[in-house]
Amino acid sequence: MSFLEVRGLRAGYGAATDVLHEVDLDVPQGAAVGVIGANGAGKSSLLRVLAGLQSARGGAVRLDGSDLPAEGAAARVRRGVVLLPEGHRVIRKLTVEENLRLAAVSTWPRGVKARLATTLPTVYELFPILHERRKQLAGLLSGGEQQMLSIGRALVSQPRLLLLDEPSLGLAPVVIDRIYESLGRLKQTGLSMLLVEQDYARLNRLCDQMHVLRLGSVTLSSTGALTDERAIRAAYFGREDAAGSTNFNTTLSKE
Ligand SMILES: Nc1ncnc2c1ncn2[C@@H]1O[C@H](COP(=O)(O)OP(=O)(O)OP(=O)(O)O)[C@@H](O)[C@H]1O
Ligand SMILES: [Mg+2]
User: Fold this and answer.
1) For the domain bounded by 4-251, which CATH number is listed?
2) CA distance between the termini of the chain
3) pLDDT in tens, 38-63
4) Where are the domains of the chain?
5) Is the pLDDT at 220 greater than 60, yes or no?
6) Choice from 23, 35, 39, 53 to test ligand 1 binding pocket (greatest atom count within 8 A of CB)
7) Which of 58, 184, 188, 194 counts the highest number of beta carbons within 10 A?
8) pTM given for the model
9) Of 44, 195, 196, 199, which is best to mutate to test ligand 1, by the most ligand atoms within 8 angstroms of its C-beta?
10) Which residues contact 183 (CB under 8 A, 6 or more apart)?
Protein backbone atom coordinates (compact mmCIF):
# COMPACT_ATOMS: atom_id res chain seq x y z
CA MET A 1 0.00 0.00 0.00
CA SER A 2 1.33 3.37 -0.97
CA PHE A 3 1.01 6.49 1.11
CA LEU A 4 -0.97 8.15 -1.69
CA GLU A 5 -3.01 5.98 -4.02
CA VAL A 6 -4.80 7.54 -6.96
CA ARG A 7 -7.06 5.20 -8.90
CA GLY A 8 -9.04 5.96 -12.02
CA LEU A 9 -9.13 9.66 -11.25
CA ARG A 10 -11.29 11.72 -13.56
CA ALA A 11 -11.76 15.48 -13.47
CA GLY A 12 -12.82 18.22 -15.79
CA TYR A 13 -14.33 21.60 -16.35
CA GLY A 14 -17.76 22.39 -17.76
CA ALA A 15 -20.28 19.84 -18.91
CA ALA A 16 -18.35 17.78 -21.40
CA THR A 17 -14.66 18.42 -20.97
CA ASP A 18 -12.70 15.87 -19.01
CA VAL A 19 -9.11 16.94 -18.50
CA LEU A 20 -8.02 13.92 -16.44
CA HIS A 21 -8.91 10.47 -17.74
CA GLU A 22 -8.59 7.54 -15.36
CA VAL A 23 -5.28 8.57 -13.85
CA ASP A 24 -3.55 5.94 -11.68
CA LEU A 25 -0.61 7.01 -9.60
CA ASP A 26 1.14 6.11 -6.33
CA VAL A 27 3.37 8.00 -3.98
CA PRO A 28 5.07 5.58 -1.59
CA GLN A 29 5.82 6.83 1.92
CA GLY A 30 8.84 9.13 1.85
CA ALA A 31 9.16 9.00 -1.93
CA ALA A 32 9.30 11.80 -4.45
CA VAL A 33 7.24 11.19 -7.56
CA GLY A 34 7.53 13.42 -10.61
CA VAL A 35 5.04 14.10 -13.39
CA ILE A 36 6.03 15.92 -16.55
CA GLY A 37 3.76 17.17 -19.26
CA ALA A 38 3.33 19.98 -21.75
CA ASN A 39 1.11 23.04 -21.30
CA GLY A 40 -2.46 21.90 -20.80
CA ALA A 41 -1.57 18.27 -20.06
CA GLY A 42 -3.55 18.47 -16.82
CA LYS A 43 -0.71 18.76 -14.30
CA SER A 44 -2.23 21.60 -12.29
CA SER A 45 -5.68 20.03 -12.52
CA LEU A 46 -4.28 16.81 -11.04
CA LEU A 47 -2.70 18.60 -8.10
CA ARG A 48 -5.73 20.81 -7.54
CA VAL A 49 -8.01 17.79 -7.37
CA LEU A 50 -5.67 16.07 -4.93
CA ALA A 51 -5.55 19.25 -2.83
CA GLY A 52 -9.35 19.40 -2.74
CA LEU A 53 -9.54 22.68 -4.65
CA GLN A 54 -11.41 21.08 -7.49
CA SER A 55 -13.75 18.11 -7.33
CA ALA A 56 -13.12 14.79 -9.01
CA ARG A 57 -15.64 13.28 -11.41
CA GLY A 58 -14.69 9.75 -10.58
CA GLY A 59 -12.06 7.49 -9.14
CA ALA A 60 -10.58 7.22 -5.69
CA VAL A 61 -7.85 8.95 -3.75
CA ARG A 62 -6.51 7.24 -0.65
CA LEU A 63 -4.04 8.68 1.79
CA ASP A 64 -2.36 6.41 4.26
CA GLY A 65 -4.93 3.71 3.55
CA SER A 66 -8.10 5.74 3.98
CA ASP A 67 -10.23 7.46 1.37
CA LEU A 68 -9.99 11.19 1.04
CA PRO A 69 -13.66 12.11 0.85
CA ALA A 70 -14.90 15.01 -1.22
CA GLU A 71 -13.93 17.47 1.44
CA GLY A 72 -12.65 20.98 1.00
CA ALA A 73 -9.08 22.12 0.70
CA ALA A 74 -8.77 23.22 4.32
CA ALA A 75 -9.71 19.77 5.58
CA ARG A 76 -7.17 18.16 3.26
CA VAL A 77 -4.44 20.46 4.51
CA ARG A 78 -5.19 19.24 8.02
CA ARG A 79 -4.95 15.68 6.73
CA GLY A 80 -1.46 16.66 5.56
CA VAL A 81 -2.04 17.25 1.86
CA VAL A 82 -0.51 20.64 1.10
CA LEU A 83 -0.23 22.30 -2.30
CA LEU A 84 2.48 24.64 -3.48
CA PRO A 85 0.47 26.38 -6.19
CA GLU A 86 1.76 27.34 -9.62
CA GLY A 87 3.61 30.67 -9.52
CA HIS A 88 4.93 32.10 -6.28
CA ARG A 89 2.01 32.87 -4.04
CA VAL A 90 2.96 35.23 -1.28
CA ILE A 91 1.12 38.13 0.26
CA ARG A 92 3.21 41.00 -0.95
CA LYS A 93 2.09 43.57 1.61
CA LEU A 94 2.93 41.38 4.59
CA THR A 95 6.39 40.66 5.89
CA VAL A 96 8.10 37.36 5.34
CA GLU A 97 7.35 36.20 8.85
CA GLU A 98 3.75 37.43 8.73
CA ASN A 99 3.31 35.34 5.59
CA LEU A 100 4.54 32.26 7.40
CA ARG A 101 2.45 32.93 10.50
CA LEU A 102 -0.69 33.54 8.49
CA ALA A 103 -0.25 30.29 6.55
CA ALA A 104 0.06 28.44 9.85
CA VAL A 105 -2.92 30.19 11.45
CA SER A 106 -5.15 29.44 8.47
CA THR A 107 -4.31 25.75 8.80
CA TRP A 108 -4.35 25.48 12.57
CA PRO A 109 -6.59 28.14 14.11
CA ARG A 110 -5.84 26.66 17.52
CA GLY A 111 -2.52 25.57 18.96
CA VAL A 112 -0.68 27.47 16.28
CA LYS A 113 1.87 28.97 18.63
CA ALA A 114 3.34 25.63 19.60
CA ARG A 115 3.40 24.49 15.99
CA LEU A 116 5.17 27.66 14.85
CA ALA A 117 7.76 27.21 17.56
CA THR A 118 8.92 24.08 15.74
CA THR A 119 8.08 24.88 12.13
CA LEU A 120 9.47 28.43 11.84
CA PRO A 121 13.03 27.40 12.80
CA THR A 122 12.82 24.51 10.31
CA VAL A 123 11.83 26.86 7.51
CA TYR A 124 14.54 29.36 8.45
CA GLU A 125 17.14 26.61 8.60
CA LEU A 126 16.16 25.42 5.16
CA PHE A 127 16.13 28.96 3.75
CA PRO A 128 18.42 31.21 5.85
CA ILE A 129 17.69 34.13 3.52
CA LEU A 130 14.10 34.12 4.78
CA HIS A 131 15.38 34.52 8.31
CA GLU A 132 17.54 37.45 7.25
CA ARG A 133 14.59 39.03 5.48
CA ARG A 134 11.92 38.06 7.97
CA LYS A 135 10.93 41.69 8.70
CA GLN A 136 10.91 42.69 5.05
CA LEU A 137 7.80 42.93 2.90
CA ALA A 138 7.36 39.78 0.83
CA GLY A 139 6.67 41.90 -2.25
CA LEU A 140 10.28 43.12 -2.15
CA LEU A 141 11.75 39.62 -2.37
CA SER A 142 13.22 38.30 -5.61
CA GLY A 143 11.30 35.68 -7.54
CA GLY A 144 13.46 32.90 -6.12
CA GLU A 145 13.05 34.17 -2.57
CA GLN A 146 9.29 34.37 -3.09
CA GLN A 147 9.30 30.77 -4.21
CA MET A 148 11.28 29.86 -1.07
CA LEU A 149 8.71 31.73 1.01
CA SER A 150 5.95 29.97 -0.85
CA ILE A 151 7.55 26.61 0.03
CA GLY A 152 7.96 27.88 3.60
CA ARG A 153 4.25 28.68 3.73
CA ALA A 154 3.50 25.13 2.65
CA LEU A 155 5.88 23.71 5.26
CA VAL A 156 4.39 25.53 8.24
CA SER A 157 1.18 23.64 7.54
CA GLN A 158 3.17 20.51 8.43
CA PRO A 159 2.54 18.50 5.27
CA ARG A 160 2.73 14.73 5.09
CA LEU A 161 2.35 14.93 1.33
CA LEU A 162 3.63 18.02 -0.45
CA LEU A 163 2.23 18.71 -3.92
CA LEU A 164 4.46 21.04 -5.92
CA ASP A 165 3.18 22.71 -9.08
CA GLU A 166 6.13 23.72 -11.27
CA PRO A 167 8.47 24.90 -8.51
CA SER A 168 11.00 25.95 -11.16
CA LEU A 169 8.58 28.14 -13.12
CA GLY A 170 10.08 31.46 -14.19
CA LEU A 171 13.27 31.12 -12.16
CA ALA A 172 16.90 31.34 -13.24
CA PRO A 173 18.78 28.01 -13.45
CA VAL A 174 20.98 28.81 -10.45
CA VAL A 175 17.91 29.59 -8.36
CA ILE A 176 16.18 26.42 -9.54
CA ASP A 177 19.26 24.49 -8.39
CA ARG A 178 18.94 26.08 -4.98
CA ILE A 179 15.23 25.24 -4.76
CA TYR A 180 15.83 21.64 -5.83
CA GLU A 181 18.68 21.27 -3.39
CA SER A 182 16.20 22.25 -0.64
CA LEU A 183 13.63 19.80 -1.98
CA GLY A 184 16.30 17.11 -1.77
CA ARG A 185 16.86 18.00 1.87
CA LEU A 186 13.12 17.85 2.53
CA LYS A 187 13.01 14.43 0.94
CA GLN A 188 15.77 13.29 3.28
CA THR A 189 13.55 14.23 6.22
CA GLY A 190 11.05 11.64 4.97
CA LEU A 191 8.50 14.00 3.43
CA SER A 192 6.49 12.44 0.60
CA MET A 193 6.25 14.61 -2.50
CA LEU A 194 4.43 14.74 -5.80
CA LEU A 195 5.95 17.27 -8.20
CA VAL A 196 4.88 18.40 -11.63
CA GLU A 197 7.11 20.19 -14.11
CA GLN A 198 7.35 20.68 -17.85
CA ASP A 199 10.98 19.56 -17.89
CA TYR A 200 12.30 16.27 -16.59
CA ALA A 201 15.97 17.06 -15.94
CA ARG A 202 15.76 18.10 -12.30
CA LEU A 203 12.89 15.79 -11.45
CA ASN A 204 14.91 12.87 -12.78
CA ARG A 205 17.57 13.54 -10.18
CA LEU A 206 15.19 14.00 -7.27
CA CYS A 207 12.43 11.49 -7.93
CA ASP A 208 12.05 7.79 -7.25
CA GLN A 209 9.35 7.43 -9.87
CA MET A 210 8.45 9.45 -12.94
CA HIS A 211 5.38 9.73 -15.13
CA VAL A 212 4.55 11.54 -18.33
CA LEU A 213 1.09 13.07 -18.55
CA ARG A 214 -0.35 13.91 -21.92
CA LEU A 215 -3.87 15.24 -22.53
CA GLY A 216 -4.96 14.02 -19.11
CA SER A 217 -3.61 10.47 -19.35
CA VAL A 218 -0.44 8.90 -18.02
CA THR A 219 1.41 7.85 -21.15
CA LEU A 220 4.72 6.66 -19.71
CA SER A 221 5.91 5.65 -16.24
CA SER A 222 9.29 4.67 -14.89
CA THR A 223 10.84 3.59 -11.66
CA GLY A 224 13.77 5.92 -11.22
CA ALA A 225 14.72 8.38 -13.94
CA LEU A 226 13.15 8.71 -17.35
CA THR A 227 15.95 7.89 -19.74
CA ASP A 228 14.64 6.73 -23.11
CA GLU A 229 14.42 10.03 -24.92
CA ARG A 230 12.53 8.57 -27.87
CA ALA A 231 9.91 7.09 -25.58
CA ILE A 232 9.66 10.28 -23.54
CA ARG A 233 9.20 12.32 -26.67
CA ALA A 234 6.47 10.02 -27.94
CA ALA A 235 4.70 10.02 -24.58
CA TYR A 236 5.03 13.77 -24.17
CA PHE A 237 4.00 14.91 -27.63
CA GLY A 238 2.02 11.93 -28.90
CA ARG A 239 3.29 9.47 -31.45
CA GLU A 240 1.95 11.31 -34.43
CA ASP A 241 4.19 14.33 -34.03
CA ALA A 242 6.98 12.77 -31.97
CA ALA A 243 9.54 12.68 -34.74
CA GLY A 244 9.03 16.13 -36.12
CA SER A 245 8.70 18.19 -32.97
CA THR A 246 11.11 21.05 -32.65
CA ASN A 247 9.78 22.04 -29.28
CA PHE A 248 11.36 19.21 -27.40
CA ASN A 249 14.78 20.71 -26.88
CA THR A 250 13.50 23.96 -25.56
CA THR A 251 10.87 22.62 -23.21
CA LEU A 252 12.58 19.39 -22.28
CA SER A 253 16.22 20.32 -22.40
CA LYS A 254 18.53 18.11 -20.43
CA GLU A 255 21.26 20.26 -19.12
N1 LIG B 1 -10.75 26.87 -14.97
C2 LIG B 1 -10.75 26.17 -16.12
N3 LIG B 1 -11.85 26.13 -16.92
C4 LIG B 1 -11.86 25.42 -18.06
N5 LIG B 1 -10.82 24.72 -18.52
C6 LIG B 1 -9.70 24.73 -17.80
C7 LIG B 1 -9.59 25.46 -16.55
N8 LIG B 1 -8.35 25.28 -16.05
C9 LIG B 1 -7.71 24.49 -16.92
N10 LIG B 1 -8.51 24.16 -17.95
C11 LIG B 1 -8.15 23.28 -19.08
O12 LIG B 1 -7.78 22.02 -18.55
C13 LIG B 1 -6.69 21.49 -19.28
C14 LIG B 1 -5.56 21.16 -18.31
O15 LIG B 1 -5.10 22.37 -17.70
P16 LIG B 1 -4.00 22.40 -16.57
O17 LIG B 1 -3.92 23.80 -16.08
O18 LIG B 1 -4.30 21.33 -15.60
O19 LIG B 1 -2.72 22.01 -17.40
P20 LIG B 1 -1.16 22.10 -16.98
O21 LIG B 1 -0.58 20.80 -17.37
O22 LIG B 1 -1.06 22.52 -15.58
O23 LIG B 1 -0.62 23.21 -17.95
P24 LIG B 1 0.56 24.31 -17.71
O25 LIG B 1 1.84 23.60 -17.97
O26 LIG B 1 0.28 25.34 -18.74
O27 LIG B 1 0.44 24.82 -16.31
C28 LIG B 1 -6.32 22.52 -20.33
O29 LIG B 1 -6.91 22.13 -21.54
C30 LIG B 1 -6.94 23.79 -19.81
O31 LIG B 1 -7.28 24.63 -20.86
MG1 LIG C 1 -0.18 24.10 -14.67
Assistant:
1) 3.40.50.300
2) 35
3) 999 999 999 999 999 998 999 999 99
4) 4-251
5) yes
6) 39
7) 194
8) 0.93
9) 44
10) 32, 164, 167, 193, 195, 206
